[in-house]
């Protein structure tokens, strides 16, 4: 049988049929993927995650313009997709990113999704009028021939969610509760991609699980894009005071035994997400992903 590499036709994810709704052309993300910092995946790990049935490798934090890791991961695998989460528009030139996209697309048709975003004002000195800057960046990608359906936007608030639906495949929210997913789906409409990141701690001891998760939640509570979005969904100053309340941690981290974690992740699908990107916080991340995989297949 002709492989995905040579045919350009990507198989459906083995953790269940693709969650992407009819009308999406980039339909091989699957229901569940794995989020790690850029350069966090080795080719061997990519193959293992593909065999376990995960549909997408999400490369977090902004990569260099050349996107060198993307090709090594795609070359090592047959059908799993690779996506950036995200390319920072202040740090990367759209023309060079477009050149990288076309290079990757020529070798691995249909297996790469370009995620872009404006990042956070606290860590981007050039951060000014992010909405306008996103529009200009998208205009540059249009001019360079990067298809709308092969890119997506980091989006939290209503204005950028609408832009994501109009100018890209859809939205890539980060650090959000399930209520955000439901709200985002209403704003995006039924056809746009909604692929949300969600943190995971597989540990039946919830006190210990929160201790594991809290530093990775607290590190975002100095960034007003995230805190302003969380306030939209009822989180208070007390919740958002570092390192974050139990209520906040429980909302943005799926904790507990395997069944409880899968149920929490599945809530996003029921709320309207097409795909959930797991960011596993357990020290034994690979072990947790192996343990979760059989239950995710059954979703």
Automatic annotation (TrEMBL):
Residues 43-217 form the Luciferase-like domain. It holds the Pfam family Bac_luciferase. The lineage of its organism: Bacteria, Bacillati, Actinomycetota, Actinomycetes, Mycobacteriales. It comes from Nocardia arthritidis. GO terms for cellular component: cytosol. This is TIGR03620 family F420-dependent LLM class oxidoreductase. One of its GO terms (molecular function) is oxidoreductase activity, acting on paired donors, with incorporation or reduction of molecular oxygen. InterPro entries: Bact_Lucif_Oxidored (IPR050766), Lucif-like_OxRdatse_MSMEG_4141 (IPR019922), Luciferase-like_dom (IPR011251), Luciferase-like_sf (IPR036661).
């Amino acid at each position: 049988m002709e492989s995905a590499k040579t045919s350009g036709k990507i198989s459906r994810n083995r953790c269940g049929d693709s969650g992407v709704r009819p009308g999406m052309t980039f339909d091989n993300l699957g229901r569940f993927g794995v989020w790690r910092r850029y350069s966090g995946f080795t080719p061997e790990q990519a193959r293992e995650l593909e065999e376990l049935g995960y549909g997408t490798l999400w490369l977090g934090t902004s990569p260099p313009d050349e996107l060198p890791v993307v090709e090594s991961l795609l070359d090592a695998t047959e059908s799993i997709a690779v996506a950036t989460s995200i390319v920072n528009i202040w740090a990367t030139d759209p023309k060079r990113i477009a050149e990288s996209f076309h290079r990757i697309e020529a070798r691995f048709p249909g297996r790469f999704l370009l995620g872009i975003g404006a990042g956070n004002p606290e860590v981007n000195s050039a951060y000014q009028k992010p909405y306008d800057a996103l529009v200009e960046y998208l205009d540059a990608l249009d001019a360079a021939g990067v298809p709308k359906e092969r890119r997506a936007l980091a989006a939290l608030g209503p204005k950028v969610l609408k832009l994501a639906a109009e100018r890209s495949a859809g939205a890539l929210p980060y650090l959000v509760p399930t209520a955000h997913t439901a709200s985002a789906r209403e704003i995006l409409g039924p056809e746009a991609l909604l692929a949300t990141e969600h943190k995971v701690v597989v540990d039946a001891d919830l006190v210990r699980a929160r201790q594991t998760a809290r530093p990775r939640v607290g590190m975002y509570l100095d960034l007003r894009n995230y805190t302003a979005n969380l306030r939209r969904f009822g989180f208070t100053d007390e919740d958002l005071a570092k390192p974050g309340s139990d209520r906040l941690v429980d909302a943005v981290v799926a904790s507990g035994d395997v069944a409880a974690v899968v149920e929490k992740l599945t809530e996003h699908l029921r709320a309207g997400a097409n795909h959930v990107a797991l960011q596993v916080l357990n020290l034994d991340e690979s072990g947790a992903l192996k343990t979760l995989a059989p239950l995710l297949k059954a979703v």
